[in-house]
Design a protein that fits this description.
The complex is a heterodimer of chains A (417) and B (188). By secondary structure, chain A is mostly helical. Chain A contains 18 helices and no strands. Chain A is 64% helix and 0% strand. In chain A, helix 12 runs parallel beside helix 16, helix 14 packs antiparallel against helix 15 and helix 15 crosses helix 17. Chain B folds into 2 domains: 127 residues, no CATH class; 46 residues, no CATH class. Chain A: Its main location: nucleus.
């Protein structure tokens, strides 16, 4: 996935939210990684995209997750000896490009703050590689952790890799000196695994816990973490939890105001509130439309729509800013209203700018009030008795315009009058 | 794989078509009836932009055709849509076995509540269980909000919510602009 392409993709198109999110993650990864990793990610994400297109992504994510992973067989073909473990380092070797010794070595040390690495593990590993690590440590480790985390996000959708941030376990070892260390670590891990019966011959020597290979396409392959239970129940639970948290992250981007909230309960609260407010808005808008049109013939509107809607359609604020009435969005909303107002004026040739600023300004004035109240006040009031309140509204608007200092609205008013 | 713009345009087209089918001019409908018809056509339109792929769209169509008295109208609106939606509107979405599932879950829940022992548990476990209860409660509420949510597990619930939120936003935006357009027209 090229850098150039991604911003366009993000803005323009026909991707579902999840695809967009994944694309964004991948883009971030590319931003932060170095060249060799970029080439790898290009491959991986390219394959990922290919796989999705091949499946004809239909919004059924369950399929995507459980579908067979195409890159894996090819990875396997390279042989485990080339792959330094099942992680970014390993993937870095996918192309057969230079084996990144530093990569492997640095993965042994504990990652900086983002990852809580068991101190003991880190020490054990660090001791063995102290001299080599010293100069590579800072750069390599940070890179490693970032890579690890990001790759997991990519991998999660294609193959569930339960192996998360390195806890000092991903010592897949350099081929030079790795094997002995690996066998040491293998002894520590337990040997049960969820898909043990499907396991390939290859790899217990490479990893601390059981590695499950892709044998059949329908199974989700999980690796147990070091120091954690490896029975099938907890593995399955962990997979499920990670899936859920991944999707909650997407929701976090979608629902406004969720950036600061951590934790499932708070997030779910916000989501519930948001969905409820959207549904209430639909109810209210349909009531409003019913009130406005006694006959409900939309033919006249269609003529209007041909002119105005295409322009409006392009001017629609992305991701529902116009329907978001939180305090932050009030200012945005006002701006949007003014934009729309100008658009209307230009494309329709009407002095139709009265109402939008009316709406916008009223909303900014009465910001503490809740949405339904405002809607009811401003709109129903204006529409159910159009003639009598029209002048009052204009007067209000005129006053308000002066108070707010919005010169545009007042100019329009003057033109209208 | 849809841009927000295409959703909105599709929704608007289908909605206007549905409204025209509603045949308002003949009858003297009260405002409430008009509102119901508008909402019905809007719901069916936004659900049909999904072409029956998502669970919530099918559930929405089923609910709409159930609540609204005139099934013929609903079927006419769906005339050009995919087979799935047509099937959904004619049959009830909820198969009998799903009711059984729901009922048995309720029974399980009640029995679990009954036989719970208030033992003294360590604080960490208590905190965890409280957190789990909170999440569970909110999940229940979300399931009641998203159409067709009662039958989904957690993971697919979140996916459906994602999709549903996007479609709802598109719906609200289009309805708002249409409302504004009619206001302006009437104001003139």
């Amino acid at each position: 996935m090229n850098r150039a392409l991604l911003p366009e993709m993000l803005h323009s198109t026909d991707m579902t939210v999840l695809e967009r999110q994944r694309a964004r993650f991948k883009w971030q990864q590319e931003q932060q990684q170095q060249q060799q990793q970029q080439s790898f990610f290009g491959d991986l994400s390219g394959v990922f995209q290919l796989q999705q297109q091949h499946q004809g992504f239909q919004g059924d994510l369950g399929e995507v997750v459980t579908r067979s992973v195409k890159p894996d067989p090819s990875l396997m073909d390279n042989g485990w000896s080339d792959l330094v473990g099942f992680g970014p380092c390993g993937y870095g070797n996918y192309n057969g490009s230079g084996f990144d010794v530093n990569c492997a070595i640095s993965s042994t040390s504990s990652c900086p703050p983002a990852v809580v690495a068991p101190a003991t593990n880190a020490k054990v590993l660090a001791e063995g590689r102290e001299p080599v690590l010293s100069e590579k440590l800072n750069s390599g480790v940070a890179r490693e952790c970032l890579k690890k985390r990001k790759v997991d996000k990519v991998q999660n959708s294609t193959k569930v890799v339960a192996e998360d941030d390195s806890r000092g376990k991903r010592i897949k070892g350099c081929p030079e000196d790795g094997e002995s260390k690996n066998t040491q670590k293998n002894n520590k891990s337990s040997s049960t695994s969820k898909n043990s019966n499907k396991e390939n011959s290859a790899e217990t020597s490479k990893d601390n816990s059981k590695v499950t290979e892709v044998q059949k396409p329908d199974y989700i392959h999980v690796r147990a973490r070091r120091g954690q239970a490896t029975d099938s129940h907890s593995l399955a639970e962990r997979v499920r939890r990670e899936k859920i948290s991944e999707r909650m992250k997407y929701l976090q981007d979608l629902v406004p105001g969720c950036n600061k909230i951590t934790g499932k309960a708070g997030m779910l609260d916000e989501i519930i509130n948001y969905v409820q407010s959207l549904q209430r808005q639909v109810e209210f808008l349909s009531m409003k439309l019913a009130a406005v049109n006694p006959r409900l013939d939309f033919n006249v509107d269609n003529l209007f729509a041909k002119e105005a809607f295409p322009a409006w359609a392009t001017n629609f604020p992305a991701s529902g800013m116009s329907s978001d009435m939180t305090n932050r969005a009030y200012l945005q909303f006002n701006q949007v209203q003014q934009q729309q107002q100008q658009q209307l004026v230009t494309c329709c040739g009407l002095d139709v700018g009265i109402n939008p600023p009316d709406m916008g300004l009223r909303r900014t004035i009465s910001s503490p009030r809740s949405i339904p109240e405002m809607f009811l006040d401003s709109s129903c009031f204006t529409h159910i008795q159009p003639s009598s309140t029209w002048d009052a509204d204009l007067q209000n608007l005129y006053n308000v315009a002066f108070e707010q200092g919005t010169i545009e609205a007042s100019n329009l008013l003057k033109m209208e009058m | 794989m849809r841009a927000p713009q295409t959703i909105k345009q599709e929704f608007l087209k289908k909605w206007i078509l549905g409204l025209q089918l509603c045949d308002f001019a003949k009858q003297n409908m009260s405002m409430l009836e008009r509102k119901k018809a508008i909402k019905l056509s809007a719901d069916i339109a936004i659900a049909s932009t999904r072409n029956g792929m998502t669970c919530w769209s099918r559930a929405l169509v089923a609910k709409a055709s159930r609540d609204y008295g005139d099934k013929v109208l609903v079927e006419r609106m769906l005339a050009s849509e995919s087979e799935k939606l047509k099937k959904v509107s004619s049959i009830g979405l909820i198969a009998p076995n799903k009711w059984v599932i729901i009922r048995s879950k309720k029974i399980l829940r009640k029995s679990r509540r009954a036989r719970r022992v208030r033992s003294s548990v360590p604080l960490s476990v208590l905190a965890k269980s409280i957190a789990k209860k909170m999440v569970k409660k909110r999940t229940q509420v979300l399931k009641s909000l998203v159409p067709g949510g009662e039958f989904m597990d957690d993971i697919s619930l979140i996916e459906e919510t994602l999709d549903y939120i996007i479609s709802l936003r598109a719906q609200v935006d289009v309805m708002q602009t249409l409302a504004k357009a009619t206001e302006l027209l009437n104001g003139k």
